[in-house]
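Bench log. Compound arrived from synthesis this morning; before running ITC I wanted a structural hypothesis for how DLL sits in the protein. Inputs:
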Amino acid sequence: MSASIDRAYWKPEAETLARPALEALQLDRLRRTVARVAESVPLYRKKFEQAKVTPDDIRSLADLRRLPFTTGADLRASYPTGMLAVPLDETLRLHTSSGTTGKPKALFFSRQDVDNAAELIARSFVATGMTRQDIFQNMMTYGLFTGALVAHYGAEKIGCLVIPAGPGNSDRQLLLMQDFHTTSIHLTPSFALYFADILEKRGIDPRKDLALKRAFVGAEPYTEETRRKIEHGLGLRVFNSYGLSEMNGPGVAFECQEQAGMHLWEDHYILEIIDPESGEPLPAGERGELVLTTLVREAMPILRYRTRDITSVVDQPCACGRTHRRIARITGRADDMLIVRGVNIYPQQIERILMGLPKLGRNYLIVLEGLDEMTVKVELSEAGFDGQLDHVVALKNEIAGLLRAEILTKPRVELVPPGTLPISEGKAKRVIDNRKL
Ligand code: DLL
């Protein structure tokens, strides 16, 4: 066996490429992509005609703005194979998006796309300090969802032992962790919170009883307070991982050891931040909708994809030496916004308050009913609750007050015993909207 090298970078030349060279590479790749889709994808041919733009008009990165957007609706309308840029027999894998309504989006990968997706994961994992010595327990869902498979291939590329555990069955997960000394796990924030509960219930002290060092956590929005809760409960470091099926799944943007924003791999994607209403670009640092363009995808290139995810660009250089810009934690999706009694509310605002209170547990649910009634149900923590009625009332009032200050409307607060709200192994459903408006 070769000696282990704790490599700070997976592909240093790509990860630390000077900005001018990185931008030149982006322009070259963009032009190739645009030429290819103009040739082979009828949707883009039509969109280019409508926008009166041709591939030759793309002479600088600023010309990107002349290109039309692609939306989730475009992908659905092109289902199943309408956006393929290669013959079907050159594709190797199909994933679909986890959309909530209507037809799914079909995402195809060529052999090169499968390999590139794994490369970006390898790059991302190594940026967190992972090496081939690490034991990787993949607790994401295997299947049409990109989360598990893409990460699986990336970890194998590094040379880790990969345990394809999938989600659920917490006792078996724990057994695997104990017997194979798992160091790194990959899961959603909601499952991570639930798993922390299980460890507490089983009397496991992860710092003493397990070998866990890090968790790659993503696939749904979560707050800094939730990160801290997971880190505390599982005794490890949490690295934020962002991606979407339309862009290969996980590995689009990932935190490095600095844990201060996620490097978005700009040699594979061009990022823009726009005003979600007007579609106009926003100045660096401002929060808006993330728009992504693929630069190297063969089977299904996508131009200026409206992700609906809200974030901002962190434009300062990172201490890790990577030159790819970072994006801030996603604060929610443009579609997630709730309007309650005329007030705009993002579920993340509520989560931030709840997860910051030590007396509360790790699970919550927002229920909207009747004409416009909001109830926030939240579990108490095992340790933080003594059962005394006056304490319950005081805690409820405290939460209601904090929520009112944050979201400007006072919801009903319901405190429930630990372990009584529905659990989630994949993406959590945090809002139930039964309003009759
Ligand atoms: O969730 C890909 C993925 C798998 C990412 C595993 C990270 C880890 P989709 O099912 O297509 O793909 O869902 C993509 O999930 O547009 C965001 O709204 C949300 N999302 C993903 N990662 C994060 C994150 C995968 N770290 C959608 N923070 C995206 C906030 C996230 N939201």
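What the model suggests: Residues 1-7 have pLDDT under 50 and may be disordered. Residues 19 and 328 are 20 Å apart (CA to CA).
ITC booked for Thursday regardless.
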